[in-house]
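call fold(seq) -> tokens
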Amino acid sequence: MQKEYKTVQSISGPLLIVGGIEGVKYDELVEVQIPGEKNYRLGKVLDISKDKAVVQMFASTTGAQTAGTKVRFRGETLKLNVSKDMLGRVFSGGGEILDGGPKIIPEKKLDIAGAPINPYCREFPDDFIQTGISSIDVLNTLVRGQKLPIFSGSGLPHSRLAAQIARQAKVTSGEDFAIVFGTMGVTFEEAEYFRKEFEKTGAISRTVMFLNTAADPVVERIATPRLALTVAEHLAFEHDMHVLVILTDITNYAEALREVSSARKEVPGRRGYPGYLYTDFSTLYERAGRVKSKKGTITQIPILTMPDDDKTHPIPDLTGYITEGQFIISRELNTNGVFPPVDVQGSLSRLWSAGVGEGKTREDHASVKDQLFASYARGKEARELAVVLGESSLDDTDRAHLKFADNFEKEFINQGEQTERTIVESLDLGWTLLKTLPQESLKRIKPEMIAKYMQGAEKK
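ret:
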């Protein structure tokens, strides 16, 4: 039987302090009954000190008062009913059904905190995921089980890029593939854009969506990514599916953590964020991966907006420590009308080499990637020299690389929002661009590969 308390001592923002408690545990669910209201509001135990408990509310505390408020501790943690039938459905950031469809018949009820994966049981990620985007597939390859964030900035089109990846992402033919998409603190218009985009393209049929908007309670924002990852774990490890989890925007999630930390009057860390921000991020990011004896995998693409485009800000800085690289959205390319504006030189996929090669992509993938990087870097250097000294001061080789850099941005990186390229098409396009350079400049590709693939590029 649930024990009821009427000993609320104070209310501060999303937090309640309840005194005189006994046998209460960390993370326990709490029902709070406000005087004059029929329905209870839900919260969870955030901290326990002697006979006092700090309760973090999932709903607003507007209208709440210490006198007459009843608090009941459930004796269980926050759990989510999960099922494969959740595919194709839309939920709120708190797990409530938003699409007007029937109730989900649960297969299991899982704790949203998840269970940590034993490092011994992890398997190294080494299988290619095709996103249909050349700058990602060829130059910063995504592999199953990897966690690879997108670093963006205010006003940049990371939402459109996320929607494109979700629409186009594919694994080996015949394998079950699913998307779990979670938004945190986005505008209502942005949430509707994702929903309508998925419905219009039919991608919704393989997607589970959790939508938390800026108008929803701040504390719900902290639960949303954990709900999404709980569903992903069920689909991956119980139904052998390959699941891609896209979470946007991690910056809003961190702001919610900072707000709760401030309400608790904790000593702030760097830039006012709580000192446990790194640990908290790891409880999300480390839920990606592959597990021995399980066919399914979880791949994560968290998206964050860097305040003032600052990569040293605590949110991108700590994210970079935990994850295996990053895609960076370039403001300069976006201004020049390039989409997707991926800064291929600033981006990095530390596991790319595990997902490429014969049998996964194509034998020439690694060589083409290295040569495109080297030639583009030299072309950008020639561009800077041309600005200072004038293009007439460049020799023929530098002019060829300058032209290559321009074409590389216009034709390879820029492919539009609705264009999907297979990995073979992307590699062939790379060869087509490389053949405009003097052959003696192609120092990172073996002569036999040049003879084999350059000829094919010339015919096309």
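DSSP finds twelve helices and 21 strands in the chain.
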